Amino acid sequence: xxxxxxxxxxxxxxxxxxxxxxxxxxxxxxxxxxxxxxxxxxxxxxxxxxxxxxxxxxxxxxxxxxxxxxxxxxxxxxxxxxxxxxxxxxxxxxxxxxxxxxxxxxxxxxxxxxxxxxxxxxxxxxxxxxxxxxxxxxxxxxxxxxxxxxxxxxxxxxxxxxxxx
Amino acid sequence: xxxxxxxxxxxxxxxxxxxxxxxxxxxxxxxxxxxxxxxxxxxxxxxxxxxxxxxxxxxxxxxxxxxxxxxxxxxxxxxxxxxxxxxxxxxxxxxxxxxxxxxxxxxxxxxxxxxxxxxxxxxxxxxxxxxxxxxxxxxxxxxxxxxxxxxxxxxxxxxxxxxxxxxxxxxxxxxxxxxxxxxxxxxxxxxxxxxxxxxxxxxxxxxxxxxxxxxxxxxxxxxxxxxxxxxxxxxxxxxxxxxxxxxxxxxxxxxxxxxxxxxxxxxxxxxxxxxxxxxxxxxxxxxxxxxxxxxxxxxxxxxxxxxxxxxxxxxxxxxxxxxxxxxxxxxxxxxxxxxxxxxxxxxxxxxxxxxxxxxxxxxxxxxxxxxxxxxxxxxxxxxxxxxxxxxxxxxxxxxxxxxxxxxxxxxxxxxxxxxxxxxxxxxxxxxxxxxxxxxxxxxxxxxxxxxxxxxxxxxxxxxxxxxxxxxxxxxxxxxxxxxxxxxxxxxxxxxxxxxxxxxxxxxxxxxxxxxxxxxxxxxxxxxxxxxxxxxxxxxxxxxxxxxxxxxxxxxxxxxxxxxxxxxxxxxxxxxxxxxxxxxxxxxxxxxxxxxxxxxxxxxxxxxxxxxxxxxxxxxxxxxxxxxxxxxxxxxxxxxxxxxxxxxxxxxxxxxxxxxxxxxxxxxxxxxxxxxxxxxxxxxxxxxxxxxxxxxxxxxxxxxxxxxxxxxxxxxxxxxxxxxxxxxxxxxxxxxxxxxxxxxxxxxxxxxxxxxxxxxxxx
Lengths: 165, 762
Prior knowledge:
The complex is a heterodimer of chains A (165) and B (762).
Chain A: E1 4-10, E2 13-19, H1 32-39, E3 58-61, E4 64-67, E5 79-82, H2 97-105, H3 114-127, H4 133-140, H5 150-164
Parallel strand pairs in A: 1-5
Antiparallel strand pairs in A: 1-2, 3-4, 3-5
Helix pairs in contact in A: 2-5
Chain B: H1 17-22, E1 37-43, E2 49-55, H2 57-60, E3 65-69, E4 91-92, E5 98-104, H3 107-114, E6 118-123, H4 130-134, E7 165-167, H5 170-175, E8 179-187, E9 200-207, E10 210-215, H6 220-230, E11 235-240, H7 254-267, E12 271-274, H8 277-283, E13 289-298, E14 304-316, H9 322-336, E15 342-350, H10 364-382, H11 386-393, E16 400-402, E17 408-410, H12 417-427, H13 429-432, E18 441-443, E19 446-457, E20 465-472, E21 476-480, H14 490-502, E22 509-511, H15 530-553, E23 564-567, E24 570-573, E25 580-582, H16 583-587, E26 593-599, E27 607-618, E28 624-634, H17 641-649, E29 692-698, H18 720-732, H19 743-749
Parallel strand pairs in B: 1-12, 10-11, 14-15, 21-22, 28-29
Antiparallel strand pairs in B: 1-5, 2-4, 2-6, 3-5, 7-15, 8-13, 9-10, 9-12, 13-14, 16-17, 18-19, 19-27, 20-21, 20-26, 23-24, 24-25, 27-28
């Protein structure tokens, strides 16, 4: 049987991956989170529960936030994906304003939930320039943070909104 | 008073902030070693059983499987307090107990192999309740612990570790009391601290007796020491990754290391073992089960005259630190309430469920959550305001208490009354408190109520810390202190402290990685000891290095060292600007300058935290809405305000406040299974249900610290559960005595559903 390939555009870079059991290949059962972390080395995407319950693995698929532990890689053929590593300016290393706001607001403690939260905020602010407080909380409601950095995260989102104005 | 600090208390981003927001911080599951295998564990479906037969031959034949281990072929390592747990045992003691281990080239292959291990069990009777477990005739989990009761000695806390609260003459105290109450309260919902990152380790043998361990431990050096003794005095190098939340649970994950190291030894390859969330729920760390049953006598003015009772502690299937938690809990209850006559007798019991181990709150939260609701029955009878009661009765400078080592210590901390008053004012306590079992307001079916909680801890100065500070000729400094970053920003705060001592920008201070090979002895950032204990060791190391630098520089500036100062990498004569030399001249271009610092335990400086809560209860549905929280404490001097407020908000997480409302590991007492081992059925507070949260922070100088500071993070969760129980009881006008306050319990208390077997102190 001839090999079968899929293409992923991750953080504006094109990856061609072989489907199958060979080392380095993508199995049909592999999740996007697994492929990003294990095949592409993009470990900024965190896996908390691996069952779609905690929000940690959130990435953008065609600009929309998805739980990458619930998406199969083979479903993403030809699609564009943004991970936390793709937010900063690839030329200058300058942080995305949302990353910068999280940094300035100290919007994390252990930091394990942070990449997922930043991706959800990125999606929210890309689709709405002036979300209400309720909309911000709703957008973040699927993210589990056990240290309770929520209050500083809300401050960071407000800070990012001010920056964008 | 004008603050003279250049870095302390100033808002600067955490040193690792860039890594975290970029997704570059490396957590344990982000690490890979060449040739590394993946470990998986076959777990028991029975709460108590003997393995009659086990056959792993089919599993061993799978391509990619490199090692399969059962109890027949494991090393004889043992851990627990006292030592009672091996790597695997022929007997399993809870649903989820490890039965066999597999290492394979991928996780998928390892999982496949687990399914091919054939086990034949002989099920045994299981026991889940502490008092049932102690009855004659109950099946014994361990032959060496008759009655399923663990001995309470905790040798690492000293030869006389605190095992009870016994002093004075309780009968005399009760005779002198105006009011005596008796009751029982249970905090036995065994909530799960559940950091987002599940625990994980990588084990790699460098030689027959040389093991390197990477882990998500909060205390890498302590893990090295624990493993050294548990694994036959081998030489362990312990390295910590970024820790994705711990709350005490990842202090010393020796059991994960046992599994990974046994597999690594058998396979002759490094092995990574990361728990799934289901394993994290079912087979890692729960809070202790706590039941207090006893009497309290007080005077009408709120003086506590006598306390006596039984404290039943459910440790689950094993204990590795519960004795330490009993000791600290026995100390902390005395910090909260001064009383001359005590007789609290703890019983630490093993049962057939997942283990309760170290968790933030560390014994005091568990004891006080069950004790305070009994104590406050007396306040109700006397018509006393609980805020005034706590303010009057907590330990003040000059008062004494028995601490965990069994010794009597006298408080030389500060007075917290000012911050309590301030907290009450911000919360509006005086307006909102309407008396016992009286709601603050009623609107249709909704009733609001308020409660207050208080907790103190003298472990802020526990245990030993050592540190080195190295000064380099290029005017940079390196801290060697074996502290991993687990969310408190401690590594950054240590850099700030050294920056202040050396008057050198924080950017010029860095920290050696948390690796036991590189760093000196460090107990770790637990019990709010980061600021006082670890901080003081690091400060002393920086001062020592600075002194040596000035001594070397003095001859070059024709003066004595005490006339010199250093700032921004230059050395100069104090008050003069004309003669300066750079560090490079003072140290020498091809030398470094090294300082050493050590902190010895000091139990005389407790910290305290007061929490006020307001809840709204829907008497139609029984649902509780947490409306407002005020956390009030005095930290002496803020080191880093963002880290501090983040830590205080943490009161809502890590099996803290919400363990009073909805957090619960639901144990099926027929099958022994935890019924909600996932993040949908285990409830957690989302962004949509955040209460208004105010922090009230005062800065009354502590003379015990160079920067007059004290740590506070660990104690934040502890005062909250009984405060919530008080608030809800007041809202609905019924006294409650069983956590968590799920709608069924509220409706039962209101007589809206039939009385089941709920316990009540009334």
